Amino acid sequence: MRIGVPREIKDQEQRVGLTPTSVRELVAHGHQIVVETNAGLGIGADDTAYLAAGASIAVSAASVFESSELIVKVKEPQAVERAMLQPGQTLFTYLHLAPDPDQTHDLINSGATCIAYETVTDAHGGLPLLAPMSKVAGRMAIQAAAHALEAPAGGAGLLMGGVPGVAPAKVVVIGGGVVGEHAIEMAVGLGGDVTVLDRNLAVLDRLSARFGASLRTIYSTRAALDEYVVDADVVVGAVLVKGARAPKLVTAEMVGRMRAGSVMVDVAIDQGGAFETSHATTHTHPTYLVDGVVHYCVANMPGAVPKTSTYALNNSTLPFTSALADKGIRRALADDVHLRNGLNVAKGQVTEQAVADAFGLPFVDPSEVLDQL
N or C: which end of the chain has fewer CB within 10 A? Predict the structure, then answer.
């Protein structure tokens, strides 16, 4: 199969869809890989590294899209990239369609087969292609919050862990999944006063067993959210509903009662955000103020650590990329229900229930479109 890897063009996005190691593996399977020039510079892989792995180098993204059957990316295709998609092509990347009507309609109109990393499942009910970036984003959320708490960044001038005789910052993590657990690990490690809110008692039990007295576990209700969010120095939004828009758990009214200089990090911003006051930001301009509260809502947080992120992502995506290329798109999807769960758009139809619900569009079960691929 002809597999294309364009250079990522989202603001400060330096990850890349395939590493040279992954390219070498796919070439060994008999596939042809074309990589846009300089696509791997962010991970320290120049064109020479890709050539040595067996890829060819294209001078432009247009060349990559024009010559490829399978496009492997990291972030959702930008408008100029969506315009280059062709009927019959397959796109394999993060999509996050539920809060993005423009992208959704463009992908429907493209006629391409679009498989989203974030809705591929596993036998344990997890999201194996989202998990590695969730781990990175959870850890980065605390790094970002610690910096944003500093006075020059607009924060309250607090050291997250405090010092002897001075209390640490109060850190509230909303959601105890992969993002939340890794945020907790970092916040506890820095000495913060950490609380997690979740509605799943099994999650709270697991986190309590892991972190012990270093973590306060609270069942999430409207009253609990109001109490802990308003009193927090740092709030991390770490909620996820597979394929759907994130629920708005923190209201603008709550934000208005928080202390000036407090920090909110919305890791759920890719799915629309967990705070009413959130809107997506970039690494170039990562924060803004609402009622004196610093908001950090970068929509591609792991892009700031492209080496860590790209290799972690490829460790998880390569088996699926290989299956798509080795078997062909239709058979790979037919053979693996978990990969099939990643199918969001195909032949102009929406095949992810949460995306269809978000926009009031007809939903077609993924298994029903396989014969059309």
Answer: C
